[in-house]
Fold this protein.
Amino acid sequence: MGEIKTYTISIFTENHVGLLNRITIIFTKRRLNIESLNTSESEIAGIHRFTIVVKVSEETVIKLVKQIEKQIEVVRAFYHIDEDTVFQEIALYKVHSNTIVNGIKVESLIRDNHARILAIENDFIIIEKTGHKEETNDLLKKLEPYGIMEFVRSGRVSVTKPLEHMVSFLKLN
Amino acid sequence: MGAPSTLVSTKTNTSVALSGAEAVIKSLIQEDVDLLFGYPGGAIMPVYDALYHYQKEIKHVLTRHEQGAIHAAQGYARASGKTGVVIATSGPGATNLITGIADAQIDSTPLVCITGQVISQLLGTDGFQETDVIGISMPITKWNYQVTSAEEIPEALAKAFFIARSGRPGPVLVDITKDAQFEQFNFDYKKCESIRSYNPVPTTDQNSLKKAASLVNESKKPYIIFGQGVILSGAEQELRQLLEKTGIPAASTLLGLSALPTTHPQYVGMVGMHGNYGPNLLTNECDTLIAVGMRFDDRVTGDLKRYCKQAKIIHIEVDPSEIDKNVKCDIPLLGDAKKILQSLLPLVNKSTHPIWMNEFEKCKKIEFEKVVQKDFFPKKDQLSMGEVLNEINNITKGDSVVVSDVGQHQMISCRYAQFNYSRSNITSGGLGTMGFCLPAAIGAKLAQPLRQVIAIVGDGGFQMTLQELGTIKQFGIDIKIIILNNEFLGMVRQWQELFFEKRYAHTEMQNPDFIAIAKGYGIEAKKITEREGLNDALKKMLTHNGSYLLEVRVGKEGNVFPMVATGASVSEVRLE
């Protein structure tokens, strides 16, 4: 079956209700777990972009991409390994305000990890960190001893390294 | 009739505004639809009311169950090459379509399903007869769309027809809320000719074409397996030309049957779990396999690890997702089968392969001695399914459309039925839907009114949709129904015998009086239990004016061979 790797699938679609469901069905039908999923606009007006991360073999990701492209409202889909993309995730951490007031360590943690404070309220502060999963996870572990009230991480967003513009693949009228 | 239709108010109105419901009918007329199968209900009533005013333009066949309507539409599409259209109401009406939609999806049948839906304000409130048919049908439709305003109707239906019939055909569903059916708007219809995100027929790579031709020219034991793609692209003539020029033997998949006349000297039979001996065995002997419009279903390939490993494979296919899905090919030829075969024809050398063809002949003889002889001329008192098919062939000479259900009788029917014309074998392939036959035969007859349509069905499958006898009677549909009654769910029983040590768990059927049932519906019927009466009974049935049901009692425990057991390789095809 080939080596299991992390693949980022980028899907360019029309912006229609229900398309997300059509795409995820392709994964669930094959019992594949989606590691992360993000939808947004793309650089082309009216064209949406899905970014889906999966851990599968190359053979499987090829089949997935073909099944995704088969959907009527999907314009094109591509897959890339991590080395071929620049990608980023964002994580938010909610911690008690007193951890920052009383502890110099937390302040240095924020500094050393290139995180930043997004909001300060009476009871809590919100820390933001962008980075790869390992990096946001690392900060999570370091903050844990101080008590984390809430943690959330976004899906991956990614752009590809190869020079050709994806737009050139899109046969748009 | 009840309340005045929206049509009346439209006609007295100075504007050209129509109701959404009337727009549905007008759109269907624009798509040259003259036949609908359906079943009314609350949420689709405005469309039915509009239909009342267009009875001259569109014939509606009221089935006895929505499943009957969709299978009839499938039978119509398969026998005619046109898009089948089915209409149902919301909730249970829509969910009753699901089996047929799944069947049409896996067998690439072009269908447009129109369902009524609760008014848009009620969506998501669990309203009466509300069901999320868009969500339910998503994995089994090529495309689906929910219309909540009348203005969307023409475009949604134009897209629906374009998507259903183009590229690799399939079922689409358009769900229309009741308020959209009532709403007035200015109707304007434009046929859909392209969708920017959809490429129905990929471009064929010219280099690959040349490579494929030289591979064919170099090979000593080339072998063609063709599927329904040949029929769907109308490539029957091109396939025949290619065969005759190259001298290559050709076998069919279950759904490819009738694309090539069964009497063609290079036609070697059917592949698959209950296909013919030679076509299965020699798949693992050929040096080049040319797969035309087929998808290497597991019932065709058996164990993939031992499937055709010795050969180079050329795969002619319209759907890119089928390339390398199950069987890795050496040369993919993406595109329309007809055009690809046309392009290939001048590039291949004129040739013959007598020694290789003779291998198939040898296998055919072995199969005749071990299987066919026993099927056609059984020594037992009880009738066999095979001899019924043999007698049908003797009488019809391959001119009929044969519609079968699912199970032993299906495999016997598809193995033995003779076909002279394309689109003559209508059966549920990929989904294996019991109950398909009777309603599909209705559609097939309406598609090909001048041809004899024979529905061959088992006692189990018949009872899944026998209510459609009512439809057959009401619309005077002349089909000949043969129940091959073995009082068992025969195929499951065969597996129980072969793989579950004869533990017949819930496969024996205590059947009703089928003759009384047919007569109850006003359909002529006869039961046959003895060999002597078979030929006469078949002749009487086939010359009878109107529909007719013939029940044939066959041996209870007959088995279908050859057989490639689950997990076995095609080269391990069993003859007994």
